[in-house]
Each structure stands twice: as C-alpha cells, then as structure tokens.
C-alpha cells in the first residue's frame, strides 16, 4: 500500500528516485507534476521538472520537499512547452542538497540536455576520476553528472549516438529520461534493475502523447494507457519523426530488483509485468502455506497487518489459513513533516503517534502480525510491544520476504551490512530481539515463485548476496551506502 | 479508518470540533498538542491551545490550519504551565475566521477563563439577543461566546457555580473544556450529544495528571488510561483539592449522536462505551445478512471497501457473506492541502488523484462496494465509474447506514436538506444516479442493534427526522446549516 | 526624517498607534492600506483593517508585522466595501499579542462596531473594574475594549449618542476612528493629546470621499486634500446624509503632545497646524543661537546629524551658525527585521551595522553632532564613540529638545523614570556618560517658541513633569509603562 | 547615499554584483554575511556564501532574495569553517535564476573550487563555443562558469597557476574571489574595471584575518582595517604559508568604472582611492560653478536633492552657490518588496508612495533639483511633476554627471542604447520631456576633475562611447544588455 509522508522518516530502506517523461502535450508540466505525484513514494526529499519551451530553451523548477511543496500554479505555468521530464528523489541529508537535485540540466555543444536518473552506477568513481584528469568539472556528487559528461565527450551531432556511447561505458543500474530540444529519450541498463514503463495518452488535439514513468500507477493517475516496459538495454526515443528504439551492444542477463515487489513499488502498479498487489498477496499466501506445513495454524486466532505495507500479504495469509483478517493496528495518516516530535520525557508515557493497536480487537488473542520485510528489527520491536500492551496473548511475526542480509548497490539507500539484523543473527535470536513468540520468513524460493517463475530474471542480492555486477570496491566502503560518494 | 488531510476537502458532513484538557502536568501544552493531533479528524481548519502559567495568566496560541501548522517548538515552549485546554475546529469559510477560533479566552471579574466547545446551542440566538440588549458585546459569531457571557453575568466567586447557572439556560449540544487559573472543568449537555471522555496519566513527578478529550484515541496516543465518560449533564472539575463532580438540574433522555459511530469518530476510539471499529464491522455484517435474506449473495465475486472509511464494514460483510475481501481501490495518502488541482482539460483525460481501482483485481468481477454513508451521491457516482472502468462486470453499492434525510442541528456541518439525495429520491432512483447495478442501505433497526441495544440512547435525527430538542426556528433557515449565524 | 524598519528595534520611546478611516470609496481597503503605510512609523508590530461590505457586515484582517506583511492582494480584495478603518500598533511583546490587535470589532445590539484607537485612557482600570463586576467580559488588555463596553451599555439606537456618553466617562488620550454599518466616526479627547486630521478625495464616481488619519503624510501619499484637524473634544461623523460634528460636554485646556514634533511625527506631516520639518529646523536654529550666546561656535568645524531624525535640526543649526552641514554618518537603510544580529564575539570587532561615520569627512575635525532627543543615553554613547573613532578631534552633542525627565501616560511607550538619564543626572554627568566634549539641550522655552507661541496648547510633561490629567495611580506603577496593565 | 530595498525596482542601471572573501576567522560565514550586507546595494536578487569546513569540503548556501532573506542562524552555523567567499547579485529575471546564483562551486581534479565574480567577460561567448566543442558542459549562462572551465583545463597541481593561465585568456571585467580547500584568492582584470579591496581584522585568537570585498564599507561594518586595493592585473592569495601576489602577463591601461563614483558605490566607501561622498560633493560644487558662469544662480531660492542619491551633490552645490539646502522631498524608507502596488484607479488620485515633496518648503520657490544621473528620463519626469505640484514656482534640474549615451559591457546592467534618452535627444528636448524650466549636466571634464585628475585611469564609455576593449560583437546585440547571453 502506498506510503504516507511521515513513514519515510523511519524507513531504513529507501528507493533513491522516480522518473517521468512527457512528449507532445500542451499540459506537459502538469502531467509531469501529476505523474511525479503518483510516484511520490519513490523519493520525498526533492522534486524537479524540466520542460523545453517553444524557443527550444529549457525551463527548470527544482526544490527540496514533496512534489506539492516544490511546485505551484505559477511555476507550472512558467514551465511552458510540450515536452518535459521530471524526477523525485530521496536525497542526501545536510550539506549542499540542491546541487544534486534532478533533473540535471546542461548546455552541450549540440544544445541543452536534461537528465533524470533512477539507479546507481557502480563504476562512477572510476569514470569521474578519469574525466576530472581530463579537465571536467563536477558541480555535484551524483552519478547523473557523469552521464552528462560522457554524452558531452562524444562528438556526434546525434544526441542518441552520444548517449549510447556514454551508456556503454557504465556499469550498474540506470533508468533514465532525457530531454533535448528535439527529443524525449528513455533508457534502461542491460540488467533492467529498476523499472521503466511506456504509455500513451490522447492529447487535446486528438494526437498521441507519449508518457514514460517508473511505475504504471503514474499512468493510472493521469488516465494514460500502459503500452509496455522499456526493455533492459533499450534506448527508446521520440522526436518530430515519431518513435524509435535501439538496443545497446552490451548484453546482460536480466536482473530486475525483487525488492520493488516486496516493498518499494505501489501496490496498484504493474512492475516487471506483474501486479504488485497480487505478488504481495501471493507471498502472504505462501507464508501461510509454510505455517500450515509446520502445523502452526491451529492455535492462531487472527491475522493483522502492519499498516499499510503489510495489508496485501496479510489478506493472502488470511485466505490461505482461514484465519480472520482484522485491522488490529490503526494508522494515523495525518502525520506530516512539520509534526513536532515529543520530548523523551513525554515519549516515556508511551506515545503512539503513528500506529494505534486496538485493545477491543487484540485483547486475549493469539495474533499473527504480517510485515513486508524486516531490516534492522527496531521498528518491529516497537510494534510488537504495542500489540502485546493492547492485550494480545501471543504475538507471532511473519515476514513476507526472506531475511535481508546484504546492502544494495543498485540505487537503493540501505543501511550498512552490520545493521541488517539478519546478516549476523539467527531467526531465533531475531525473534527474541523483536519480542515475538515466533518468527518466520518467507523463503527465497517461495518469494521467487510468488513473482511467477521469472527466477532467472530477478536480482535478489539483498536476500542471497549474489550481486550481478562487479562492485568496483563499493563493498569495501565501510558505510555500506552509496550516497554522496566522491573521490 | 482515520481520515487523511485531503479527504476532508470533499466531505460534505463535517464534525465541527474536538476538545481536550490537561491538568497537573509540566508538559501540558505538548500533551494538548499530541491529543489534538489524535483528534485532528474532528476539525482541520483551525487549532488552538490555552495554558495557565505559573503567575495565573493565560497563554494563547491559535491559528488557521492543521495542528502541526499552527504550533511549533517555540510556541509550545511559550505555552508554559501545568494546565491547558485545546481545540480543533472545522471553521466557517471566508470572512473573519480568526475571531471564531477557539479556545475562546476572556478576563472576567473573577479572573481569566478560557472555553473550548464542541457542539451547537440551539437557543443561542435567543440568548444573544437578550444579552446584547443588556449591553453585552459579541466579538465573534460562535456560540462559545454566549457561554462566556452567561458565566460572566452570574455573580459568584465560584466559577463552577457561575458555569452551571449559565449552562442551565442553554439548550442543544455542548461538550466543553474550561480553564481558569485555579481549575480545569469538563461539562457535557444533558442529552450527551457529543462524546467527552476522562483519563489519567502518571506525570513525571509520579503524581496523577488528568486528561479530558473528545475521543479515547487521544488517550492512546499519549499513553493515558481511559477512566470513564463525562456523563450527560455532568460538570466535572479538578483543582488543587482534587477532582469533583456535580449534575445539572436539567434532566434529559440520553441522545448521543449515532453518526459518530457511522462516520465521524476514529475507528480506534471507544465512543459512548463501544468500539467504533466493532460497531462498523457489525454494521457491515448486518448488511450482508440483509443481502443473504434477499438471496443476493450467490452472484457476487468479491467485496471491496471505499477506502479508508468503508474498510471495517467491508470486513464485516466479507466475514458474514463468505465473499473475499480485496483492496480493489488503492488510496493515495500523500494528498495535502497544497496540491495543485488539475485543469479541466487534464481532468478530462480521466485523472484519478485520490483513488486508483486495480484492474488486476476487478476485471470481469461482480463487485460489492461498501461505503459508510451516502449524502449527496456525487462522490459515490465518481467512485462507481472508476470501478466499472477498471473492468468490473457488475457493481453493487452497499451503505452501512440508513438513508440520510435530515440536517443536523447539534454540531455537525451538514448540507441543507435539499442536497441530501435520500430526502427526496427513492433508493432505485439513487441507484440509477450513482450508476449502481443495485443499491441497499442498512436499515435503522440494524444500525441501532449494531450499537448494541442502546436504542433509546441515540439521536438518529439525520436518519429518522426525530430531533430531541426544540429547534427554535433553526429548521426554517433556508441554508440548513448553522455556522456563522448571528441575529 | 521618516524612520526605517530597523530603527524601531532600538528606539526607547515609541508611539503606540496610528489610525485611519475612509468613507465612500470603492477602494476603501486599498486607500486604508496606503494610508497605514504612510504612518507605519507610528506602529510596526501589528496592523489591521476593518471594512463594511455591501451587506452591512464587517470584514476584518489583522496580523502581526508591518503593513506590507499583514496584507496582500487577496486580503485587500476580500476587504470589500466602501468604508474602512485601519490601525498600526506598537504592541506589547510576547504573550497573547493578537488579542490586542486593532481595530477591535464587536457585535452590539445595534449592529457591528469597530474601533481603532491611538492614545491611553488614564482611568481605564477603574472603569474596567466596575464593568467586570457588572458582568462584562474582557478578551484583551487594551483600553480600546473599554470604549466598546461603554458604548454597548448606553441604550440608544443612535451610535454617536452611545459613543459620546461613553467618551464622557473617559479621562486621558484618545484619537479614534469608529466604523459601523452606517457611519464613519472620528473622535478626539478634549485635551487633543494625539493628532487626528480630516481630508477629502475625489472618488472614481466624481463624488467626495472622506479620509481621516493620524498625520497628513497619509493624505499626501494617496493624493487627498487636507481639510482641517479634528478638534479636541470633537466627535465628527459622516453617514448617508453627509458630515456632522458635535462637541463633547467635557471641556479641557488644549494639551497636544509636543513630542510629536520633537520625534514621533514624520517630518513631512503637518501636525497641530505646523510643519514638523519646519519646527525641527527652527529648534536646530535656536540651538545654534544658544551656542552663539555662549560663544561656543568659533571653534567648531562642522555640523553633522544623527541620521535620519537629526537632519532637519542639523540643517537649522548649520544655517544659523554658518558652519557647514555634512553627512558625517551614513545610515544603512537595508536593515530589516530578519537581519541576523552578530554574536558578541563578532560585535567586539567593532561592528557598525546601522551607522557608518565617514573618516574622510570627520578626521581631525571639531564636530557638532545634532540629535532630536536623548532618553537613556546609551545610543548616543555608541554613536559618539563611532564618531571619535572615525578621527573627530572634538565631539559636541546638541539635543534639539530639553532633557526628558518624566514618563508619558498618554499613549507613548516610554521607559520607566529611573531609566530616563536626565531624571537623575546633571548635564555634565550625562556629557561624561555619553563621551561628549560638551553637551547642550534646547531649553523648553526655545522649544515652545519653535512650535510658534502655542505655549499654553502643548503637553510637555515629559520635559517639565506637569501632567494635564489626574494620573489615577499610574505614576505609582513601578514599571513606569502602561502596556498590558490589567486589574 | 545607500539605496533602499525598493528603489532598485525602478532603477534602470544596476551593478551586477558584489563579492567578499574571508580567511582565517572562526566566524568566517558570519563575517561574510555582514560584509555582503554592507554591499547589498550591489545586488539584491540573490546571495550566496561558500565556506571550507574542517574536512576540506565546501559548504554552500545560495538563494534568491536579500542577504537577510537567504541566510538565517541555522544556515550560518551550518556554513562551518575558517574561510569563506560570498556574493550578491542582480540576477536575470524569470527563467532558471538559481542555476546562475553565485558563488559557483565545482569539484576539479585538484579539489573543490568556488568562484564569486563581479564583472562581465566580453569574449566569453567565443571561449564557451570552443570549450563546448571540446566536450565541456555548461549548466548556467553566466561567465563565471567559463572561468571554472578554464581553470579545470590547465594541468597543474597549483591552483593559482591554473587560474592565471585561465584569466590570461579572458578579456573584459572581473573582480573575483576564489576559494579552494587550501587558499583564498582575489583577482582583478588588467583594466581594473570594477573595485576590489583588501583588509585585515584581528581574529579572536589574536591572529590576523584577511578580508576581501568590493567596497570598503564592508570593512567599516565589521571593524576591519582597509589595507589597499587589489591592483589591476593582480592575483593575490593567502594560504597556510601567508599572503602572496603575482601580476598577470597581460598589461592594460587602467580603466576603472567612473560610474561607481557617480552612482553605484556607497557614499561611505573609498573607491579607486577616493571617498565617494567627497567625489559626489565635488561634482555638485562644479555643477554650481558651471551655473555661476552662466549667471544662473541669482534667481534661485533653494537647492533640493533627489533623495537619497542626490544628497552629497546637492550639499556641494549649496556650498558653492550659497543657496540654502533643504530636504524638499522626503523619502519613505519602509517600502519593501512585498508592498502591494496600488491599482491604476488609485494611482490616478496622485499616489506618492516613495517620495513626498513638502509644500511648506517648496511653495512659491524657485528650486534647483539635484540628481546623480539621468538615464531614461521617466523617473525625473515624475519627480519634477511632484515638486511642481507642491507649489514650486520654477523647477531647474541639475545632473551631477554628463549625459549617458552608451550601454556598459563591463558588468553593469544598462538599458539598450535606444532607451538612453541622451543618446538621441538634445538637452533642450530632454528638459522639455522631464518638465524642467532648465536642465544642465556636469560636463565630462568636470566629472573627471572631480575624481582628481586620474583622467587616464577611468572608463567613461557610458558618457563618451570610448570602450577600452574590443567588444566581440556585443554592441551588435539588439537588446543592448548582456545578461543571459548564450550561444
């Protein structure tokens, strides 16, 4: 289920970005705004839109905050033009955030180019070092600037050729939208790590508008039709002469991020060809199957989700197990970023700002609590305490994914390995830490089956440690996360 | 389920207010802030807190907007003192809003007094007229000022005596918290229209703090213990000598607002002695029973709620009917008040800002859609269109309450009678208007049973037109709503 | 010279308020805005406008801050109507400021009434006490509310009669504008302490609009014609039948505030019948005459003002003495309220935020520094240090007014008596304290002559201690200032 | 005299920038803030500060607005470090302003470098074109980025060498401050177009801090000592080993901007070795000499300045002519950027928002009005109308500079040539246009003498059309102004 504003504050596993693109629509900036709004869950710290106006100039609006904080009617009107790209970002904290806000925009010898990027380039530091020795200037610390430099260094009047040449040098994850004064380009790395989808919309003139977005929920919101995925390794573009597509020379086995299904993507999106809601429900159903095999279910009274992200899996668990599904924990949706956190002194009273377990539902019951994943364990611990304090007799935690044991190097901001509780502790000891009477995870085979047999097509490195690329020393970075790295 | 910020914009039936009070706690302003935050759904247009500082002076912070917009760390620190009352309000629009913001505060001959009020006084205009002729000044249009004037006109050094004398003159709905330099008072009209509950909290010194609030969810959030309802007709107070209680002379048959259970209150609150979640689930169960009797259920594939308020009833319906519960409509929780609404031109594309029906769930299915109530019918119409566009083969609407036929005069901002679709149209014609293959309401008997046999104890005037008080001509007001009325 | 935003922060002697009124103009709110803007120097902490709209209802906008911070295009449009009053205020600090913001507005038995008040009622506490015992409610601590209550208690359908009856009970200073749904009223206490002037403007329909304001500079800004003073003890009003005037029964000898000429009023205003610029220049000329008589002038090189308020007097001194006038101190006009004050550590470097003495002008010179008044002496001390540090060989301070020895009880926020350096120290010791080689004040006779022989017509209590009214114990208030007093 | 916030809105001749630098002071960010504040008149649209923190990283805060709007206590604290540079800017309007905000910051192969630039590079477009063909990326349209690229392309580990090599390629105006992790650099083009001065301050540890700024008034404000100008063609720097200086190979005849003395610089600054106040006063004196020779003075009653910028010249005119100086026009210093401009309907009443001529001073008089310069003539026209409406019998305009006939290409934002009224019209016809009974300018010889015989040392191209550099086609740009140019 989609995430509210506030939850992001506590989440330890954050997607870095979402991207969109619009071509041939007089409302390009407003459609970008709405599309970014639909994928707000992919990045809540900054947002930006770049358009190309009638004179071929870029217009830019970027800022820190939610989509609705960065743009207003005035700025959307100012973003004139029939083509646009947009970006939402979970940015680095503190110092110099604005320099890294996207889309990143530049004037090259062949005109203005803007890029919006979701993902992480694993060999970015190597390339940066080389470019700097060759006189390149970097204003920001993000990988996106590397892409712009590689494009600028290839001498062709054909932007797509320059872009392809640049992308062939990269390794890692990138789902891009690119805007020049003549075209909208969408490109995806050969692994297909991050999602990127193509859609169309009939514009006001009865002509076809093209829409690109990270997730299909953006199409739903603006009433666009989903056409297909941008393929791994594909460079697709549309210009005055119509749409075109080429494939990159570099070929790789598909390795789409399984965690998009587990947690990131909105439940109402179709990601990598499948309904996220459906996958999560199936994962919950398989969790119940596992419990059935273990003979666990006979002594359970009810199933409750950790709202909102655990809801589909809990429904699946309920259907398979026949145990009643209840909203045992009510979530407060009003929390915004200006909420004044209570002092420790007040916190000690037992404040429940976000989640309120219902005594009337839980009292005296043997409860199965379903969550989508378990990263550090600290949040689960708090939740189980609340559930028990509301009178639950037994509290059993079920996770609709395998234990997370490794950090991500492909565009997800994960805690360092040492903070992934499952990387160093047994299931029993985790159960003890979080205060569960029992704890069980969905096994990786079950999760892969829930995503319907595309076993070879997914990267599950966070669950099995098998990274599809060379890591270029990133795994020796003690911090274990990739944001803000610069040589 | 609790309401998000944005939904209030469209809702046509709004509770006017929520109140809180805190006594004997060094964090009085912050506990008030958190408590108001928990009852934010009762009023999102203005918020205020008044404290009494060490020198016996009132400190006041009021403003337009959500609780988290009105207060910040600086203002909460400035609101020094160990006692406080607070208020959230659905205020009148446009002109002079701030003058009506609460708590209302005044300096009387016996010191400073502040009042926070939830409800509506039906004989306020009569009393105002009399007081003005006697030289009284009214700065605002709200009923609350009438209460202050009545207190001021009774010559006793005992504030509770003055208050009681004043309240005996009133007819209508009031749940009050009152703060002087010496006491915190809570009072409720003899009908008990609006909720008001009492709780305690151990403060930092190990002593007992007292908390008063409109709903128990405020206690849950701050970790307070629910003690009991303030009784209809009770004046309760706490001062340096401890807690006290008296009963007003005026006696009335209890007439608590049944709509609190149907829609207003948070599902995790205990209201009028019962779990709101439980009542709603039971209402849904009874809806399914009705359908069973009609032989309707055999041709249904699944049950979906209108999120979030229809969820508990849909769960109850699912349990009783055995039909699977699905989140067929996903709700976007990010929408805030700064969201830029799309132009009509874009809207025509079929924009779905708030609710996104899932084709993967609904396609080809015969669907029962459950909502808590149906007022004008326009929102239901849009939702059913979306559900049908997502591929549902049949769409049946079930309402977990009776048809709403009359406006409320007891503190709820309702549309005028002519806009209540059920006041003039048959169920069949409403079904046609909203585009439902069938429409059925829970009957009033069923709803009253869902609130467990307190039949005599509820006001259901909006469903049956039986108003427990004289209306003093208010029913002849063509606008049919009560806000901002002044002779 | 008019004061910039920032100077008010340091000023120790502040006028409490300025008032305006507009009648019969479709741009009433905008003319009020511009008029308040012209008298911004009279109050920079809050501002407000009340209009009467076409339906006879008041519309109100009040807020903390400068005129341009409180109003915007939206609020000025919302303030519909052809009649308005407005107010700027130097408000109390800290607690509950908004409750005292003006105009104060109320609904009386004979309709809505709003009042804007400049001045201070010396017997307000006595009257308040009596009214409270009679059941009156006070929401604020200001005197203005007393006026509203007195009006409300007089039973006549004629608002002017009620107002006159109320005003006859008051003692002290008041220049009022009052707005009902039928008339605009201007009234001034029998002493004529504070200024109040009447003007006209041709409106868009070719008819006459009426304007009332504290100072004529408001007329200049909006292009209105100055007609005359509202007389001491006069109640003037305009309604559908034209303009009217009556005199109060209470008669007093005129006692207009001489400090308006010395410091408060804008130099381009005509106050109490005379040009403020002219009076100040004449005061400076007389200062030079005094110095001539003392044989002081022969050893002086140049005359410099403390900018901006000392400029006219320095020009007068220069003309009389024949000594060159130079802008020896340059003032920084950019300072606004959001300026971050430097830390003490930086301050120690010798920071000169506001005033920069010019070494190229002052170096090696014997300098006469002219200021309008000297209250605590601390600001003068800093300025003289700067002048000396810029190389001045001798620094002589001349004050274009007598020593200030007493606080004001008639609407000026003065420091308590003990902080008025001249109340306890000799001129020699003050000269030593401020670091002047010599110090001389204009004597009271000279100042009175500068205001052209209206000797009997001025209150100079701050210079001579002769208070024209009974003080009702206010002089026993240890704080010596009047803001926020409440029994 | 320094300019207030609002006047800039109307001014047609704007300096593009001001720069500062601080080295070896624990309060580096706050000293930069105060220094920028002192030179706020040089740019009011954006402001920025970059510091180097203890770890050698840049910290950046930039924003649109005044210095006091861009920074607050939090941001100044965040700007940790003992070295800083800062910038204020009159930026381009509308599109993409933030990308051009300065200081501009980049990561080069030899570390982070930030640049703040005042001036305009006349061959920037030629260099940009070449760099782009070589693969360089430009994010902004400003010349400053060219400088960064030239530095990046020179392969030396010595930043000063790289900078010198880059600067030798430039033609035009630049006064720079540059900050790396190891040094603070100040550089000035060989013509010395724009000012740049060096100062010192004893820091808290008793050691010497270095300060660089556009004008000496920045030193005055923070209590720093003026040491000397940075020489034309000089590159000065300070690092751990102390201060250093080299001269560029390119030699040019000095051509400092004479308009800094006429209008731009603050009167309390020492610019190009002379007091600005002194130069302006002398210019006024020479204007009076001219009038004496013409026998004009006998029929004049008084001299008034257009405030504030005409004040020094009017004082000089008064001294020479013996005619009395009066503040005949009072200026309103409160106007800020949020002021709501009156509608045309109100404007027609004769609104005088900013300048209020005093009838009491002007009525019946023959008046000489002194202004610093005359560009389009439209502002002068309005002012003379006001003066005449206030009763002046004759109004004679005197300009303390020659007629402005050519646009500036060296860092001043001027109107295009066709809008410079003196470029196409005779003095008589200008006099008629502005409504003066007579008009006279100071001749160029007189102005050059006022700046004390450095005739060869000044650029007066705006007065005589003699541009010291090749213009690289800029004079063929139809718009006649240089902002935002990009190939």
Kindly list the characteristics that best describe this protein.
disordered N terminus; Rossmann fold; 7-stranded antiparallel β-sheet; Glutamine Phosphoribosylpyrophosphate, subunit 1, domain 1; homotetramer; 487 residues
Largest Cβ-defined interface? A-B, 69 and 69 residues
Helix share of residues of chain A?
Answer: 25-40%
How can the largest sheet of chain A be summarized? 7 strands, antiparallel
Strand line-up of the largest beta sheet of chain A: 4-3-5-2-11-10-12
What CATH calls the topology of the largest domain in chain A is: Glutamine Phosphoribosylpyrophosphate, subunit 1, domain 1
Instruction: Categorize the overall geometry of chain A.
Output: globular
Low-confidence segments of chain A, given as residue ranges, are 1-12, 92-96, 478-487
Radius of gyration of chain A: 23 Å
- Fraction of residues in β-strands of chain A: 15-25%
CATH H-level superfamily of the largest domain in chain A: Aminohydrolase, N-terminal nucleophile (Ntn) domain
What's the CATH first level of the largest domain in chain A? Alpha Beta
Number of domains of chain A: 2
**What is the subunit arrangement here?**
homotetramer
């Amino acid at each position: 289920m989609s995430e509210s504003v506030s939850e992001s504050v506590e989440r330890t596993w954050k997607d870095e970005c979402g991207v969109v693109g619009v071509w041939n629509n007089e409302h390009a900036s407003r459609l970008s705004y709405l599309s970014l709004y639909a994928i707000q869950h992919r990045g809540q710290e900054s947002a930006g839109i770049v358009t190309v106006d009638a004179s071929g100039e870029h217009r830019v609006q970027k800022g820190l905050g939610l989509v609705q904080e960065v743009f207003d009617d005035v700025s959307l009107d100012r973003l004139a033009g029939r083509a646009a790209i947009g970006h939402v970002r979970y940015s680095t904290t503190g110092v110099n955030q604005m320099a890294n806000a996207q889309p990143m925009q530049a004037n090259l010898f062949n005109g203005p180019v803007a890029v919006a990027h979701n993902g992480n380039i694993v060999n970015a530091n190597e390339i940066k070092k080389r470019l700097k020795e060759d006189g390149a200037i970097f204003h920001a610390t993000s990988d996106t600037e590397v892409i712009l430099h590689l494009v600028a260094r290839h001498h062709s009047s054909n932007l797509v050729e320059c872009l392809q040449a640049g992308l062939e040098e990269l390794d890692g994850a990138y789902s891009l939208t690119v805007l020049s004064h003549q075209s909208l380009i969408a490109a995806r790395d050969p692994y297909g790590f991050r999602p990127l989808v193509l859609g169309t919309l009939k514009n006001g003139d009865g002509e076809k508008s093209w829409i690109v977005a990270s997730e299909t929920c953006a199409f739903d919101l603006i009433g666009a039709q989903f056409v297909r995925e941008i393929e791994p390794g594909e460079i697709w573009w549309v210009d005055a002469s119509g749409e075109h597509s080429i494939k990159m020379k570099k070929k790789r086995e598909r390795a789409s991020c399984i965690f998009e299904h587990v947690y990131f993507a909105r439940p109402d999106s179709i990601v990598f060809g499948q309904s996220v809601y459906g996958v999560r429900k199936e994962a919950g159903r398989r969790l119940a199957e596992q419990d059935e095999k273990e003979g666990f279910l006979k002594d359970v009274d009810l199933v409750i989700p950790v709202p909102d992200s655990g809801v589909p899996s809990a429904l699946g668990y309920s259907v398979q197990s026949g145990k009643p599904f209840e909203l045992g924990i009510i979530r407060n949706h009003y929390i915004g970023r200006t909420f004044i956190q209570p002092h420790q002194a007040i916190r000690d009273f037992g404040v429940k700002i976000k989640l309120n377990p219902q005594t009337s539902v839980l009292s005296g019951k043997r409860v199965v609590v379903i969550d989508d994943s378990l990263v550090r364990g600290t949040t689960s611990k708090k939740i189980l305490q609340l559930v028990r304090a509301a009178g639950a007799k037994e509290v059993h935690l079920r996770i609709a994914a395998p234990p997370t044991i490794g950090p991500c190097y492909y565009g997800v901001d994960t805690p360092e390995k040492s903070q992934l509780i499952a990387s160093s502790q047994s299931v029993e000891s985790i159960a003890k830490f979080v205060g569960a009477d029992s704890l069980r995870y969905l096994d990786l085979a079950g999760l892969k089956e829930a995503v319907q047999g595309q076993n070879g097509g997914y990267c599950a490195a966070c669950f099995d440690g098998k990274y599809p690329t060379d890591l270029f020393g990133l795994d020796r970075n003690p911090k274990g996360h990739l944001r803000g790295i610069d040589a």
